[in-house]
Write a structure and sequence with these properties.
mainly alpha
Length: 135
């Protein structure tokens, strides 16, 4: 989360505790931040949360999968599977490795440098294709 957003939420909380209305808070934020001010609907939502007793200015934790599927281990697994059978589709690789199809496509095109990866067939992958370090 950006520092500007966090700063504005702190200011919204301050205004709510002072008894300022959400409309007054929007006007003040626009005066101070100009074009970088939060949207009116967001200000109203956060103002309501703070009026109802919320203290934390940070977002709540969200459920779902963390973005961790493009790991070096998965890049190597995709590379080895693509080397073993060039006829495998992206969908088939995704199913075998239990990885999202889009993640497999990104690994093939971005990490392994395969320019023409299609959903139906994986093109030839060189056995000496290296995995870039630091990803």
């Amino acid at each position: 989360m950006g520092d500007r957003i966090l700063e504005q939420r702190i200011n919204i909380k301050f205004c709510a505790k002072l008894g300022k209305s959400a409309s007054e808070t929007v006007q003040m934020l626009r005066e101070v931040y100009g074009a970088d001010a939060m949207k009116k609907s967001s200000v109203f939502e956060w103002h309501k949360r703070f009026k109802n007793g919320r203290e934390d200015v940070k977002d709540n934790e969200r459920s779902g999968h963390p973005v961790t599927h493009r790991t070096l281990d998965n890049v190597e697994r995709v590379r080895l599977l693509a080397l073993s059978d060039r006829q495998l589709s992206i969908r088939m690789i995704a199913e075998q490795l239990h990885i999202n199809k889009e993640t497999v496509r990104q690994i093939l095109t971005q990490d392994l440098g395969i320019r023409n990866a299609s959903p139906t067939m994986v093109p030839r992958v060189s056995a000496n294709t290296t995995i870039p370090e630091g990803e």
